[in-house]
Amino acid sequence: MKYRARALLVLLGCAGLWSGAQANDPTYPAGPVRLIVGFAPGGGVDLLARGVAKKLQEQFGQPVVVENRPGAGSTIAAAAVARAKPDGQTLLFNSIAQSINQGLYPSLPFDTVKDFIAVSPVATAPNAISAHPSAPFKTLAEMVDYAKKHPGQVSYGAVGGSTTMYLGMAMLESQAGVKMNYVPYNGTVPSVMAAITGEVQVVSSGYGNQEAFVRDGKLRLLAMTTAQPTNLAPGVPTVAAAASLPGFEIVNWMGVFAPAATPAPIVEKLNGAIRKLLADPEMLQIMNVQKVEPYHLSSAEFQKVLQNDVERFTKIVRETKATPQ
Hints:
The protein is an alpha/beta fold. The protein is 46% helix and 19% strand. It is built from 12 helices and 10 strands. Strand 5 (155-159), helix 6 and strand 6 (181-185) form a beta-alpha-beta unit.
Protein backbone atom coordinates (compact mmCIF):
# COMPACT_ATOMS: atom_id res chain seq x y z
CA MET A 1 0.00 0.00 0.00
CA LYS A 2 2.85 2.38 0.87
CA TYR A 3 4.48 1.61 -2.48
CA ARG A 4 1.26 2.22 -4.38
CA ALA A 5 0.68 5.49 -2.53
CA ARG A 6 4.25 6.58 -3.22
CA ALA A 7 3.87 5.64 -6.89
CA LEU A 8 0.66 7.63 -7.12
CA LEU A 9 2.38 10.69 -5.65
CA VAL A 10 5.20 10.34 -8.16
CA LEU A 11 2.71 10.13 -11.03
CA LEU A 12 0.84 13.19 -9.78
CA GLY A 13 4.11 15.07 -9.46
CA CYS A 14 5.07 14.15 -13.00
CA ALA A 15 1.67 15.26 -14.23
CA GLY A 16 2.20 18.62 -12.53
CA LEU A 17 5.64 18.97 -14.09
CA TRP A 18 4.22 18.03 -17.48
CA SER A 19 1.45 20.60 -17.11
CA GLY A 20 3.96 23.26 -16.12
CA ALA A 21 6.19 22.34 -19.05
CA GLN A 22 3.25 22.68 -21.40
CA ALA A 23 2.31 26.07 -19.95
CA ASN A 24 5.85 27.26 -20.64
CA ASP A 25 6.27 25.39 -23.91
CA PRO A 26 9.33 26.93 -25.60
CA THR A 27 7.92 25.95 -29.01
CA TYR A 28 5.34 28.77 -28.80
CA PRO A 29 5.36 30.97 -30.70
CA ALA A 30 6.64 28.92 -33.60
CA GLY A 31 7.01 31.97 -35.86
CA PRO A 32 5.77 35.53 -36.38
CA VAL A 33 2.64 36.45 -34.43
CA ARG A 34 0.00 38.64 -36.06
CA LEU A 35 -1.77 41.05 -33.71
CA ILE A 36 -4.82 42.22 -35.62
CA VAL A 37 -6.31 45.56 -34.58
CA GLY A 38 -9.85 46.58 -35.52
CA PHE A 39 -9.16 50.31 -35.65
CA ALA A 40 -7.20 52.72 -37.81
CA PRO A 41 -3.51 53.51 -37.19
CA GLY A 42 -2.77 56.40 -34.84
CA GLY A 43 -5.70 55.97 -32.46
CA GLY A 44 -5.47 54.96 -28.82
CA VAL A 45 -6.17 51.25 -29.39
CA ASP A 46 -3.61 51.05 -32.20
CA LEU A 47 -0.87 52.82 -30.23
CA LEU A 48 -1.39 50.62 -27.20
CA ALA A 49 -1.36 47.51 -29.40
CA ARG A 50 1.99 48.55 -30.83
CA GLY A 51 3.45 48.89 -27.35
CA VAL A 52 2.15 45.44 -26.43
CA ALA A 53 3.50 43.96 -29.68
CA LYS A 54 6.96 45.40 -29.00
CA LYS A 55 7.11 43.94 -25.50
CA LEU A 56 5.75 40.53 -26.53
CA GLN A 57 8.35 40.40 -29.30
CA GLU A 58 11.08 41.06 -26.75
CA GLN A 59 9.82 38.24 -24.55
CA PHE A 60 9.14 35.69 -27.29
CA GLY A 61 12.11 36.35 -29.57
CA GLN A 62 9.75 36.23 -32.54
CA PRO A 63 8.28 39.09 -34.60
CA VAL A 64 4.91 40.34 -33.34
CA VAL A 65 3.37 42.32 -36.18
CA VAL A 66 0.45 44.73 -35.79
CA GLU A 67 -2.02 44.47 -38.66
CA ASN A 68 -4.77 47.12 -38.87
CA ARG A 69 -8.13 46.03 -40.25
CA PRO A 70 -10.47 48.90 -39.40
CA GLY A 71 -14.14 48.98 -40.25
CA ALA A 72 -17.58 47.91 -39.06
CA GLY A 73 -16.80 48.65 -35.43
CA SER A 74 -13.84 46.22 -35.38
CA THR A 75 -15.96 43.28 -36.57
CA ILE A 76 -13.86 42.85 -39.73
CA ALA A 77 -10.77 42.26 -37.61
CA ALA A 78 -12.65 40.06 -35.15
CA ALA A 79 -14.10 37.91 -37.95
CA ALA A 80 -10.61 37.34 -39.37
CA VAL A 81 -9.32 36.13 -36.00
CA ALA A 82 -12.38 33.97 -35.35
CA ARG A 83 -11.59 32.12 -38.60
CA ALA A 84 -7.86 31.83 -37.89
CA LYS A 85 -6.11 28.64 -36.89
CA PRO A 86 -6.27 28.34 -33.08
CA ASP A 87 -2.53 28.09 -32.56
CA GLY A 88 -1.82 31.47 -30.96
CA GLN A 89 -0.08 32.83 -34.07
CA THR A 90 -3.03 35.10 -34.93
CA LEU A 91 -4.47 37.22 -32.12
CA LEU A 92 -6.95 40.06 -31.83
CA PHE A 93 -6.23 43.28 -29.96
CA ASN A 94 -9.55 44.97 -29.37
CA SER A 95 -11.33 47.44 -27.18
CA ILE A 96 -14.60 47.01 -25.34
CA ALA A 97 -16.09 47.03 -28.85
CA GLN A 98 -15.58 43.27 -28.65
CA SER A 99 -18.46 43.12 -26.17
CA ILE A 100 -20.59 45.87 -27.75
CA ASN A 101 -20.78 44.33 -31.23
CA GLN A 102 -23.03 41.43 -30.29
CA GLY A 103 -25.93 43.76 -29.52
CA LEU A 104 -25.17 46.40 -32.15
CA TYR A 105 -24.82 44.24 -35.25
CA PRO A 106 -27.82 41.93 -35.88
CA SER A 107 -26.01 39.31 -37.97
CA LEU A 108 -22.38 38.88 -36.98
CA PRO A 109 -20.44 36.03 -38.64
CA PHE A 110 -19.24 34.96 -35.19
CA ASP A 111 -20.37 34.65 -31.58
CA THR A 112 -18.44 37.06 -29.36
CA VAL A 113 -18.36 34.73 -26.36
CA LYS A 114 -18.25 31.27 -27.96
CA ASP A 115 -15.81 31.94 -30.81
CA PHE A 116 -13.09 33.67 -28.78
CA ILE A 117 -10.95 33.11 -25.74
CA ALA A 118 -10.44 36.28 -23.73
CA VAL A 119 -6.69 35.98 -23.11
CA SER A 120 -6.04 39.04 -20.95
CA PRO A 121 -7.03 42.67 -20.58
CA VAL A 122 -4.23 45.20 -20.90
CA ALA A 123 -5.61 48.59 -19.93
CA THR A 124 -8.65 50.53 -18.91
CA ALA A 125 -9.33 54.10 -19.99
CA PRO A 126 -11.95 56.79 -19.40
CA ASN A 127 -13.46 58.85 -22.16
CA ALA A 128 -13.63 62.62 -22.09
CA ILE A 129 -16.14 65.06 -23.54
CA SER A 130 -14.60 68.31 -24.76
CA ALA A 131 -15.80 71.30 -26.73
CA HIS A 132 -14.25 73.81 -29.12
CA PRO A 133 -13.47 77.00 -27.18
CA SER A 134 -15.96 78.95 -29.33
CA ALA A 135 -18.88 76.67 -28.43
CA PRO A 136 -21.76 78.57 -26.74
CA PHE A 137 -21.33 76.62 -23.48
CA LYS A 138 -18.51 76.26 -20.99
CA THR A 139 -19.68 73.30 -18.90
CA LEU A 140 -21.45 70.02 -19.57
CA ALA A 141 -24.52 71.27 -17.72
CA GLU A 142 -24.61 74.32 -20.01
CA MET A 143 -24.20 72.04 -23.05
CA VAL A 144 -27.17 69.92 -21.98
CA ASP A 145 -29.26 73.04 -21.35
CA TYR A 146 -28.28 74.51 -24.72
CA ALA A 147 -29.09 71.23 -26.49
CA LYS A 148 -32.53 71.16 -24.88
CA LYS A 149 -33.25 74.69 -26.12
CA HIS A 150 -31.71 74.06 -29.57
CA PRO A 151 -32.56 70.44 -30.57
CA GLY A 152 -30.18 69.02 -33.17
CA GLN A 153 -27.98 72.10 -33.24
CA VAL A 154 -25.13 70.82 -31.08
CA SER A 155 -22.84 68.68 -33.22
CA TYR A 156 -20.48 66.11 -31.77
CA GLY A 157 -17.91 63.83 -33.31
CA ALA A 158 -16.97 60.33 -32.22
CA VAL A 159 -15.64 57.14 -33.74
CA GLY A 160 -18.65 55.45 -35.28
CA GLY A 161 -20.04 52.03 -34.54
CA SER A 162 -19.35 49.93 -31.47
CA THR A 163 -17.36 52.37 -29.38
CA THR A 164 -17.89 53.77 -25.92
CA MET A 165 -17.24 57.18 -27.47
CA TYR A 166 -20.44 56.93 -29.52
CA LEU A 167 -22.49 54.85 -27.08
CA GLY A 168 -21.55 57.14 -24.21
CA MET A 169 -22.97 60.12 -26.06
CA ALA A 170 -26.05 58.12 -27.07
CA MET A 171 -26.53 57.31 -23.37
CA LEU A 172 -26.10 60.99 -22.49
CA GLU A 173 -28.69 62.04 -25.07
CA SER A 174 -31.14 59.38 -23.89
CA GLN A 175 -30.75 59.99 -20.16
CA ALA A 176 -30.60 63.80 -20.37
CA GLY A 177 -33.50 63.96 -22.81
CA VAL A 178 -31.67 65.91 -25.53
CA LYS A 179 -31.22 65.56 -29.26
CA MET A 180 -27.79 66.31 -30.71
CA ASN A 181 -26.29 65.98 -34.18
CA TYR A 182 -23.90 63.03 -34.32
CA VAL A 183 -21.08 63.10 -36.89
CA PRO A 184 -19.32 59.72 -37.15
CA TYR A 185 -15.58 59.40 -37.87
CA ASN A 186 -13.52 56.37 -38.80
CA GLY A 187 -10.79 57.08 -36.27
CA THR A 188 -10.13 58.84 -32.97
CA VAL A 189 -7.62 61.31 -34.41
CA PRO A 190 -10.03 62.61 -37.11
CA SER A 191 -12.80 63.06 -34.54
CA VAL A 192 -10.56 65.07 -32.22
CA MET A 193 -9.18 67.18 -35.08
CA ALA A 194 -12.75 67.91 -36.19
CA ALA A 195 -13.46 69.50 -32.81
CA ILE A 196 -10.18 71.42 -32.82
CA THR A 197 -10.91 72.91 -36.25
CA GLY A 198 -14.54 73.64 -35.40
CA GLU A 199 -15.98 71.13 -37.84
CA VAL A 200 -17.99 69.88 -34.85
CA GLN A 201 -18.59 71.64 -31.54
CA VAL A 202 -17.98 68.66 -29.26
CA VAL A 203 -15.89 65.50 -29.30
CA SER A 204 -16.17 62.28 -27.33
CA SER A 205 -12.98 60.22 -27.30
CA GLY A 206 -10.40 58.63 -25.04
CA TYR A 207 -8.98 61.25 -22.68
CA GLY A 208 -5.43 60.53 -23.83
CA ASN A 209 -6.25 61.77 -27.33
CA GLN A 210 -7.52 65.09 -26.00
CA GLU A 211 -5.23 65.86 -23.05
CA ALA A 212 -2.50 67.76 -24.93
CA PHE A 213 -5.05 69.87 -26.82
CA VAL A 214 -6.91 70.65 -23.60
CA ARG A 215 -3.62 71.73 -22.03
CA ASP A 216 -2.88 73.99 -25.03
CA GLY A 217 -6.33 75.59 -24.91
CA LYS A 218 -7.46 74.14 -28.22
CA LEU A 219 -10.23 72.16 -26.52
CA ARG A 220 -12.28 72.85 -23.41
CA LEU A 221 -12.66 69.74 -21.23
CA LEU A 222 -16.24 69.39 -20.00
CA ALA A 223 -16.42 66.03 -18.21
CA MET A 224 -15.02 62.52 -17.72
CA THR A 225 -17.10 59.36 -18.14
CA THR A 226 -15.87 57.55 -15.02
CA ALA A 227 -18.22 56.84 -12.10
CA GLN A 228 -15.95 58.79 -9.74
CA PRO A 229 -13.51 61.65 -10.40
CA THR A 230 -10.23 60.32 -11.77
CA ASN A 231 -6.66 61.30 -10.94
CA LEU A 232 -5.96 61.31 -14.66
CA ALA A 233 -7.84 64.61 -14.86
CA PRO A 234 -7.81 66.28 -11.42
CA GLY A 235 -10.67 68.66 -10.77
CA VAL A 236 -12.70 67.64 -13.81
CA PRO A 237 -16.27 66.55 -13.01
CA THR A 238 -17.84 63.29 -14.08
CA VAL A 239 -20.77 63.21 -16.51
CA ALA A 240 -22.88 61.84 -13.66
CA ALA A 241 -22.19 64.89 -11.49
CA ALA A 242 -22.00 67.56 -14.19
CA ALA A 243 -25.22 66.55 -15.94
CA SER A 244 -27.07 65.31 -12.84
CA LEU A 245 -27.25 61.75 -14.17
CA PRO A 246 -26.64 59.46 -11.16
CA GLY A 247 -25.03 56.14 -12.09
CA PHE A 248 -23.74 57.29 -15.47
CA GLU A 249 -20.49 55.48 -16.28
CA ILE A 250 -18.89 54.20 -19.44
CA VAL A 251 -15.22 53.23 -19.43
CA ASN A 252 -13.20 51.53 -22.14
CA TRP A 253 -10.95 48.50 -21.78
CA MET A 254 -8.48 47.00 -24.24
CA GLY A 255 -7.25 43.43 -24.37
CA VAL A 256 -6.04 40.40 -26.29
CA PHE A 257 -8.25 37.64 -27.69
CA ALA A 258 -7.51 34.33 -29.37
CA PRO A 259 -9.66 32.02 -31.51
CA ALA A 260 -11.72 29.49 -29.61
CA ALA A 261 -9.97 26.14 -29.13
CA THR A 262 -6.57 27.76 -28.72
CA PRO A 263 -4.72 25.36 -26.36
CA ALA A 264 -4.77 26.34 -22.70
CA PRO A 265 -0.94 26.28 -22.35
CA ILE A 266 -0.67 28.92 -25.10
CA VAL A 267 -3.37 31.07 -23.48
CA GLU A 268 -1.60 30.75 -20.12
CA LYS A 269 1.75 31.71 -21.64
CA LEU A 270 0.24 34.75 -23.33
CA ASN A 271 -1.56 35.80 -20.15
CA GLY A 272 1.68 35.53 -18.18
CA ALA A 273 3.60 37.49 -20.80
CA ILE A 274 1.01 40.28 -20.67
CA ARG A 275 1.16 40.34 -16.88
CA LYS A 276 4.93 40.72 -17.14
CA LEU A 277 4.86 43.52 -19.72
CA LEU A 278 2.41 45.50 -17.57
CA ALA A 279 5.22 45.88 -15.03
CA ASP A 280 7.74 47.01 -17.65
CA PRO A 281 8.80 50.67 -17.09
CA GLU A 282 8.76 51.45 -20.82
CA MET A 283 5.25 50.03 -21.19
CA LEU A 284 4.06 51.95 -18.15
CA GLN A 285 5.46 55.13 -19.69
CA ILE A 286 3.57 54.43 -22.93
CA MET A 287 0.39 53.99 -20.91
CA ASN A 288 1.02 57.14 -18.91
CA VAL A 289 1.38 59.16 -22.12
CA GLN A 290 -1.88 57.71 -23.41
CA LYS A 291 -3.63 58.32 -20.07
CA VAL A 292 -4.65 54.70 -19.63
CA GLU A 293 -4.15 52.45 -16.62
CA PRO A 294 -2.77 48.88 -16.45
CA TYR A 295 -5.45 46.20 -16.12
CA HIS A 296 -4.76 42.49 -15.76
CA LEU A 297 -6.98 39.50 -15.04
CA SER A 298 -6.72 35.77 -15.54
CA SER A 299 -8.18 34.46 -18.78
CA ALA A 300 -11.18 33.00 -16.93
CA GLU A 301 -11.85 36.31 -15.17
CA PHE A 302 -11.57 38.26 -18.41
CA GLN A 303 -13.92 35.83 -20.13
CA LYS A 304 -16.49 36.58 -17.43
CA VAL A 305 -16.04 40.33 -17.92
CA LEU A 306 -16.60 39.85 -21.65
CA GLN A 307 -19.80 37.89 -21.11
CA ASN A 308 -21.17 40.39 -18.57
CA ASP A 309 -20.37 43.34 -20.84
CA VAL A 310 -22.06 41.68 -23.81
CA GLU A 311 -25.25 41.49 -21.75
CA ARG A 312 -24.84 45.05 -20.43
CA PHE A 313 -24.23 46.68 -23.80
CA THR A 314 -26.95 44.72 -25.56
CA LYS A 315 -29.32 46.35 -23.08
CA ILE A 316 -27.77 49.81 -23.60
CA VAL A 317 -28.02 49.50 -27.40
CA ARG A 318 -31.67 48.56 -27.07
CA GLU A 319 -32.45 51.42 -24.67
CA THR A 320 -30.61 54.11 -26.65
CA LYS A 321 -31.66 52.80 -30.08
CA ALA A 322 -28.00 53.05 -31.10
CA THR A 323 -27.11 52.00 -34.64
CA PRO A 324 -23.82 50.86 -36.27
CA GLN A 325 -23.73 54.11 -38.36
